[in-house]
Amino acid sequence: MRRSLALLFVVLAVLPGGAPAGAGGSSGEAPVAAGSWAWPVAAPHPIVRPFIAPATRYSAGHRGIDVATDDPRVLAPAAGIVHFSGVVVDRPVLSIRHPGGLLSSFEPVDSPLTAGTPVRRGDVIGTLQPGHCSRLCLHFGVRRDGEYVSPLLFLGGIPRSVLLPTRAAAASRRRFASSAPSPAPGTRRTRKRATAPGAVRRAGAPGRSSL
Questions:
Q1: Containing domain of residue 49, as a range?
Q2: What is the pLDDT of residues 14-57, one digit of tens each?
Q3: Structural domain count, the chain
């Protein structure tokens, strides 16, 4: 437990630091389109542990996704500049700063890259190390303006929300329908018999009522 808390505090202290010269910030830049990033590991990249948003900055949660793979190569999901490459506590970590105030992080990943190195989408950025899961897997995290968000927002793995009618709206419609005026007791509704176009009713001939 103490080791996990120590790792969390060190990661929070290291990753949010200032961007290297030329790295993209969030001001004046277009937002990143959903689904525009590439997966950092080879297909089929099953998720063995999903993103769980922490309630507060230091609360428990899972600040990323764990993705299983048989290929140890780790790829840059989008263009950016290496922000950090080194060991945090006892785990090799690499992070990349992207335009739009985004910072991606990868662990446990050994990388020859150094801070300030530009990378392109799909570039090999390091080698995945064992030990994070029971099988080879990558912990992939993303921060937007300092806040952890699900990487699936940029990988296209979260479907768009569809607003559905609430129970309150359905109940309101039922109340409206039940409040419509009804005929007084003992009265009968009549309806006029339809007359064919061009037909002329004979004068004095009473029309029929349909009860």
A1: 33-155
A2: 444 433 333 344 444 556 666 789 999 999 989 999 999 888 87
A3: 1
Asked if the structure places residue 178 within a domain, the reply is no
CATH classification of the domain holding 130: 2.70.70.10
Peptide bond into 108 cis (omega under 30): yes
For residue 189, tell me if it sits in a domain: no
**148-167 confidence digits (pLDDT tens):** 999 999 998 765 544 555 55
169's tokens: 């709206």
C-alpha to C-alpha distance for 61 and 3, rounded to whole angstroms: 15
φ, ψ at 167 (rounded to 5°): -65, -35
Q: Is residue 40 part of a domain?
A: yes
Q: What is the pLDDT of residues 165-186, one digit of tens each?
A: 555 555 666 665 666 566 566 6
Question: Which residues does residue 94 pair with via DSSP β-bridges, in sequence order?
Answer: 85, 106
Q: Tell me the C-alpha distance between 152 and 39, whole Å.
A: 9
In a domain, 197, yes or no: no
The CA angle 25-95-38, to the nearest 5 degrees, is 85
Helix (H, G, I), strand (E, B) or coil at 85: strand
Q: Are 62 and 133 in contact (CB under 8 A)?
A: no
90 by Cβ neighbours in 10 Å (0-12 / 13-18 / 19+) ranks as exposed
Peptide bond into 31 cis (omega under 30): no
Query: DSSP label at 64?
Result: S
Residue found by looking up tokens 């990558």 in the block:
138
